[in-house]
Design brief:
6 copies of one chain form a homohexamer. Chain A is mainly alpha-helical. Helix content of chain A is 77%, strand content 0%. Chains A and F meet through helix 3 and helix 5 of A and helix 3 and helix 5 of F.
């Protein structure tokens, strides 16, 4: 499977998020809000939290979630070495079934490098 | 990830189903047949059964299955409020990893509204 | 695998919940609270919501979650026919890997019948 | 987690299967029947089919299903070398999260050797 | 969801693999190497090992992994009957949630037949 | 479900690991070795790597893996605040289906505090 360009990814994401916010009941709105809160600086740095979000998304194998955290990792100045060590843990825990997602994670990372 | 149009979705589905029926051994044919039976009116209404199928597909995160049940929900006159409460339960149980699928579920629902 | 008695299940659950509430940070407390809210009567009845929770727990194969929803289903006066139709949908969607959980769901249901 | 003895495993399994057969609706009965059919000799030998069932159960991480297929593999005269190669493929595909299940698979296998 | 052509699949795969090999740390390189080793002829034939890889990929529902093993199965002279029996076991164990992947597996198989 | 005592957990783990090492083929031995390597100090600290292992185990819902990483986290001087933030991310990503595992994670943590 190929992945869409970064701008297409962002556009699809926003289109979907808009539909969620327009239609969500009260509890869904709260869940959605919490998603934005848990990666903020706490006892753990927001960088480390993004890596936790990334590895969770990798072992659960969700490309959109991985793409989102890759973008955030870049904003948090994660290095390629840190990225690879995180992906290696996901690969070890989650097995070779994660490899196609690692491929797409690195393609996304590369797109960001070229911006 | 973007999702294909409704007609493309239906076309791909039919193409694949045709290949299944042409090649399936006896047990696969039976499994395939049961899939069509379990959502029929029983002690539970077919509407409630479709919602059960939808939430199962959401927590297992299969876009094609979600699309299929969204189409069926529409036929069963599910309201947007009922849809959202069902998706909220899936989101609660299955976590934020389901969000990209909720986005695409609502985009699919919207396509049906416009038909 | 065998399952513990109903009273042991409840005791372990409470012990764990107490530890969660004593230690949870703000966001975890909110998530925990939402879990209690989403099954309440809404556009969908609380009975139908419990069935949605049950089928989600079955296809994701979590015995403790299944036990919890089985207890709630009993309180909501779910009949054995409604229970079986719900479990059949879970079995269809989730496959034979759910069967050990269906076994334990019915053992739990039976314990409740005898109370 | 420890695993129960072989006789306890068989007893729990039968108790649960009895409840399924007593309560199952028509479609569940058919699914249950198919489960018994698909591992029978076909173009593929029943031995190879049991290995397919075993590796599926391992990557989906269901101890009861693994125990069942381990027992069947023994009946089909699977050797320890064949068993290990099958488990290695499951470990490779499914990652280290499968390791606790490999431990219990080998403990079960050992119980069967001693019978 | 539709699947890309065989040449596009191969191209995306190679592009991603190149990025993995350029950036991988030592442990990831080793994991990647092992992935190539475990399907080689051993006590079990490489044909049977490919079927084990295929069924694992099916129940874990990874289209790219399925496509890869379908291509390998073809090289190992797997017949359509053997393929279908393997997919039927995956469908039985993993449920109807695997059906969209079976559709795409058969479309991929068909593309290979026409080459 | 209750969890066994710490000493029982360690004993079962060792018994299983012994069986793995006695029977493992070459590739399984290598996978097993890599599991021990990836959490070692690198660009990321071993503490952060343990948290990555913990959150992966939580969202994939493996009690034995969680127990193992909880023990390691304690050795790495992870604080209760850091633990809770990590579990909150797992809960957010993986949903309420992770709650029974969070309960048992905290019971395990408590056992370690009392040692």
């Amino acid at each position: 499977m190929s992945i869409e360009s970064l701008s297409e990814f962002e556009k699809n994401r926003e289109k979907g998020n808009k539909l969620i916010l327009e239609n969500a009941d009260r509890q869904m709105k709260r869940l959605f809000h919490i998603d934005g809160e848990v990666y903020k600086e706490g006892t753990l740095s927001s960088k480390n939290k993004e890596l936790l979000g990334l590895v969770s998304s990798l072992v659960l194998r969700c490309d959109d979630c991985i793409s989102y955290h890759i973008v955030q990792c870049k904003k948090e100045a994660v290095t390629i070495e840190e990225l690879m060590e995180t992906l290696t843990i996901g690969y070890t825990v989650g097995g070779s079934i994660t490899v196609p997602h690692i491929r797409r994670a690195l393609i996304r990372w590369n797109q960001l490098e070229k911006e």
